[in-house]
Amino acid sequence: MSAAASGTRKAVRTCPLCEATCGLELALAGDQVVSIRGDEDDVFSKGFICPKGFALKELHADPDRIRTPLIRRPDGRFEPAGWDQAFELIDSRLTPILGADRNAVATYLGNPSAHNLDNMLYARVLLRALGTRNVYSASTVDQFPKQLASALMFGGGTTVPVPDVDRTSHMLILGANPLASNGSLMTAPDMRGRLRALRARGGKLVVIDPRRSRTAEEADEHHFIRPGTDAHLLFAIVHVLFEEHLARPEQRLTQIADGVDAVRACSHDFSPEAVAAVCGIEPGTIRRIARELATAPSAAVYGRIGTCTQEFGTLSSWLVDVINFLTGNIDRAGGAMFPLAAAGASNAAGTPGRGRGFRAGRWQSRVRGLDEVFGELPVACLSEEIETPGEGQVRALITVSGNPALSTPNSGRLDRALAALDFMVSVDVYVNETTRHADVILPAPSPLRRSHYDLALYQFAVRNVANYSPSLLEPDPDLPAEWVTLLRLAGVAAGLGPDPDVAMLDERVARAVLQREIATPESPVHGRTVEELLAALEPRVGPERLLDAMLQVGPYGDGFGAAGDGPRLSLSALEAAPHGIDLGPLEPRLPDALRTAGGTIELAPERLIADVERLRTSLRAERNGELVLIGRRQLRSNNSWMHNLPVLVKGKPRCTLHVHPDDAERLDLRDGDDARVSSRTGAIVAQVEVTDAVMPGVVSLPHGWGHDVPGTAQRVAAAQPGPNSNTLADELLVDAPSGNAVLNGIPVELAPVRAAAAVA
Ligand SMILES: Nc1nc2c(c(=O)[nH]1)N[C@H]1C(S)=C(S)[C@@H](COP(=O)(O)OP(=O)(O)OC[C@H]3O[C@@H](n4cnc5c(=O)[nH]c(N)nc54)[C@H](O)[C@@H]3O)O[C@H]1N2
Ligand SMILES: Nc1nc2c(c(=O)[nH]1)N[C@H]1C(S)=C(S)[C@@H](COP(=O)(O)OP(=O)(O)OC[C@H]3O[C@@H](n4cnc5c(=O)[nH]c(N)nc54)[C@H](O)[C@@H]3O)O[C@H]1N2
Ligand code: SF4
Ligand SMILES: [Mo]
User: What is the CATH number of the domain that holds 18?
Assistant: First the structure.
């Protein structure tokens, strides 16, 4: 029976769940998903799919997903409400707080916003309308160290070197497990296939991780490292590159690079012999790793969560690219390269090769005095900003697709702080550990009822691609698109009352974007009129109008008809190519992609050199044999929010504490036992899994669990809650240059629950 005859239809779209951007082929019957498989014709993923991709079916159908606004009653119970009623309440409660002090309203943007075109384009409109300095997001429990290092070195926070995995002959991975995570700041569907291809063509893969991860199992070599000591190791590699005259940066880049001598001087104290005991890696091994990197025909060093969310996150992230530079691998095929995205590439806009540079610390957090970075404050500060009285105290919070009550450090404290807010609004799809504190929850539609384009992730893709997915299903008349909700909130914040003219606000946004373009001398639409461009974009509105404009003025764009030959992109061109458009392998982009003030590659930025002393001091720190906690990701999980989907949580509990056999024996713990894990900030009970996949002295627990708090409405998740690892992460530990939270390398104590009970 043909699809049509059976009443099903086929459609393709990009998976919005992780950074791999896989093409999915869905079979639909009416509004229901019948099946999902990989889209074999997708120009990038070529049929690859992971278990989470299938889970979109259950996400779409999940009866616990909220479908109307909810208002919390005084007894704590949520009651469905109409949109007007919800917005009247928001306006009446938020407007006075904003009127007294704009900084009294904080925002928190969570991870799914990076996978959501509506949020990518309209959350910033809300932030601008609020005018608060209390802007927080998941970025400071994630990638800010990498973005900060990149901004300081290359002039832009999205100018991040990405490993050219398909052409490299040597890859060194630190603190990333793309076989479970499917890659991050490295958009590359099917990393297992790509890494196997690397080895099949004679290349080498080396993994540095305190755990023998799935990626480590695929590698030629894996070395355990003490958590938090990657910067020591990387500096030692730099040391060897200089000492053994292996540093051979490309001539064309040496001419535009500043700070090689400063890097050399800093690396002096970090010989392999000096760091070996700290990292737990032999000096001979470190020297060999350095030589192999330097002599490989091409090589790429790549680090991710394990190198970012730790004590020396920014230094590690920086040193990764210092090594890529010194070994001649920055910006060349097979090395670490700069993608050229079709839309929103800030390093392809304006004057090529130079810019305003980058400055952090334009303001500080009120209580701890931590620096602003990229317009945000570290989320590790959020609790104290809510708790501490005085001018500028946070009294209200708006969360958009975030679950900070599970994903940020000392979440127990944040949970109590959220309960103490005067007012809270959440735009979300579940009543969960965070949104249960909201006075109003505004739902977002199913991912199948919105369009999709990976504006953020294509900035980090290992190939230049562009793929647009229209909404698969008609909008639900009672559940507006998320961009409409965000604009309506922006209207409230701007003082326009509970029912602002969203179409007018949207046109204003589009006008501002076009205005900026026509004022930019390098833009293909320089000198044209906003009216003319707006007319050309008709009848599109909302994200489609903005995306079309961005594609047209982008590096492959048709320039609103002004461009010449070649593949010329517009939204219509993408609509005509449902499996995506391949724009080719990455190409060298320096110096044009630089936006530093001097037009140089800054190898030794002041903010980072200033932090080297902290690293040097840590060389002498005493190691008293304490246990430290790290995280890990699992293929069938996605941070905190997909544990309500039976297909992903079935089977034995996966939120277990990995403990090395030596530690288990010393602490009298057996496989399957419950253990009490405690840190400065709190204690949890976790089930022990004894395994030599984790190194001695280190225990590992996944994050995003802890679904056993009252007042949530996620029935499947609550049945397998797991412990919340961020109860243990210490909000006072941050990476100094970025303020990013330290989530790996947390000192903990471990005891069998039976012993703890006996003592208590
Ligand atoms: N210990 C430890 N903690 C960590 C990490 C770690 O490795 N270890 N990793 C950190 C990292 S990298 C990240 S990115 C953060 C993630 O931290 P968060 O972004 O705070 O948490 P998520 O679990 O991604 O929660 C996403 C929220 O978005 C909602 N949501 C899902 N889809 C939509 C949608 O379409 N619209 C809206 N409005 N809402 C939606 C979900 O219901 C959920 O509430 O966690 C961090 N926390
Ligand atoms: N299945 C799944 N996929 C995901 C997510 C998910 O939750 N589940 N989350 C998504 C998000 S938001 C992100 S940011 C990405 C993250 O993508 P990845 O960075 O690949 O994430 P992880 O799998 O957590 O890998 C981090 C690794 O660092 C190791 N590690 C911990 N501490 C250290 C250290 O000090 N040094 C070194 N060298 N290694 C260390 C851990 O053992 C772990 O293997 O994944 C994304 N994809
Ligand atoms: S790897 Fe990521 S993008 Fe691909 S199917 Fe899985 S969740 Fe979706
Ligand atoms: Mo993340």
Answer: 3.30.200.210
Cα 81 from Cα 70, distance rounded (Å): 6
Task: Using DSSP, state whether 671 is helix, strand or coil.
Answer: coil
Residue 1, pLDDT above cutoff 60:
no
Rounded to the nearest angstrom, the distance between the alpha carbon of 675 and the centre of ligand 1 is 26
State the Cα–Cα distance between residues 13 and 2, nearest whole angstrom: 21
The residue segments making up the domain with residue 195 are: 144-351+590-614
- The answer as to whether 268 is a domain residue is yes
* DSSP H or E run through 216: helix 214-218
pLDDT attached to residue 163: 98
In this structure, the residue with its CA closest to atom 4 of ligand 3 is 22
Do 646 and 739 reside in the same domain of the chain?
yes
400 CA distance to ligand 1 middle (Å): 10
pTM: 0.98
Contact call for residues 259 and 212 (beta carbons, < 8 A): no
Residue 760 is predicted with a pLDDT of 43
* 633 in the same domain as 608: no
Residue 291 pLDDT > 60: yes
Same domain? For 640 and 606 the reply is no
β strands within 600-649, DSSP E: 601-602, 627-630
Total structural domains within the chain: 3
2 pLDDT higher than 80? no
Question: Any idea what the CATH number is for the domain that residue 628 is in?
Answer: 2.40.40.20
C-alpha closest to that of 397 among 406, 387, 410? 387
- The verdict on the CB of residue 446 being under 6 Å from ligand 1 is no
Q: Ligand 2 within 6 A of 176 CB? A: yes
In whole numbers, what is the pLDDT of the chain averaged over residues? Answer: 96
User: Would you say the CB of residue 142 lies under 6 angstroms from ligand 1?
Assistant: yes
Q: How far is the CA of 408 from the centre of ligand 3 (A)?
A: 24
Q: Which ligand places an atom closest to the C-alpha of 42?
A: 3
Q: Are residues 346 and 241 in the same domain?
A: yes
CB atoms inside a 10 Å sphere around CB 379: 30
- DSSP assignment, residue 330? B
Q: Check pocket membership of 631 for ligand 1, CB cut-off 6 A.
A: yes
pLDDT at position 325, please?
A: 98
Contact indicator for 549, 559 with CB cutoff of 8 Å: no
Distance of CA 317 from the midpoint of ligand 1 (Å): 22
**pLDDT value at position 754?**
78
Q: Is 355 in the pocket of ligand 2 (CB under 6 A)?
A: no
- The pLDDT assigned to 5 comes to 58
